[in-house]
Design brief:
By secondary structure, the protein is α/β, with parallel strands linked by helices. 39% of the residues lie in helices and 23% in strands. The chain has a six-stranded parallel sheet with strand order 2-1-3-4-5-10, with helices on both faces. The chain has a four-stranded mixed sheet with strand order 7-6-8-9, covered by helices on one side.
Length: 230
């Protein structure tokens, strides 16, 4: 594949490594200081897929620029989901291709599945309260994280006694932590914890490249459930 990376910070560089290891080509990197390259020949004529990891305030505009050239998008930025219905509409009515995940780590997406399964089981046991904790690096702007929001949504969908207002989410920003998420069930008798801890950005980068491979030749809106068949 010929890939344009939109956002060339630490995550973008990790994705570049993963893509090159899998035999792909990076034809262009676009960051805050070279926005004019959205009109460059490398973007307009050579790009087969764009992988976007930037900031919440710029993400949606970046997606629309890609859609203007019918370039498939793998979206890794969180905090923009108020525009999700517009993205769905573009995929449905214009034949666009868009892959979104709140977290591209294969391990985190298995963790999502465990979380859903446990929540369904714990719905029968009101003596257990549930809360969440998440820790990320100090550069992460959104809190709670997109991953934490996904976990929370799956909990409140499956536990009748909880909603988003009554589910406690503690969000901490410390050092260069890649990401820690924990779901805690506690009763007077005991505590049950499930936890995912990212060791580095490598897992997120690999997942994003796998997503880019997955959407080749497809149109529509896709998620990690489609990729992993969860």
């Amino acid at each position: 594949m010929k890939i344009t990376l939109i956002g060339y910070g630490k995550m973008g560089r990790e994705i570049e490594k993963a893509a090159l290891e899998r035999g792909h080509e990076i034809v262009l990197t676009i960051d805050i200081d070279n926005q004019a390259d959205f009109d460059s020949p490398a973007f307009l004529s050579s790009t087969e897929v764009a992988i976007e990891f930037t900031r919440p305030e710029s993400a949606y505009a970046n997606y629309r620029k890609c859609f203007g050239r019918h370039i498939p998008v793998v979206a890794g930025t969180t905090g923009w989901l108020r525009h999700l219905d517009e993205i769905k509409q573009a995929c449905l009515e214009q034949g666009q291709t868009f892959f979104y995940a709140s977290n591209y780590s294969l391990g985190v997406n298995l963790f999502f599945a465990f979380n859903r399964h446990l929540a369904k089981r714990m719905n029968r046991f009101p003596e257990y309260d549930v809360r969440m904790e998440e820790i990320h690096h100090i550069h992460k702007l959104d809190a709670p994280s997109g991953t934490a929001i996904t976990l929370a949504e799956d909990i409140v969908k499956n536990i009748d006694r909880k909603n988003r207002d009554t589910l406690s989410i503690e969000s901490l920003r410390e050092g260069e932590v890649s990401g820690i998420h924990e779901v805690v069930y506690e009763s007077d008798a005991d505590i049950i914890r499930i936890r995912h801890e990212a060791k580095s950005r490598k897992g997120f980068a690999l997942g994003a490249v796998l997503a880019a491979e997955f959407i080749q030749g497809k149109t529509g809106l896709f998620t990690m459930d489609d990729l992993l068949k969860l």
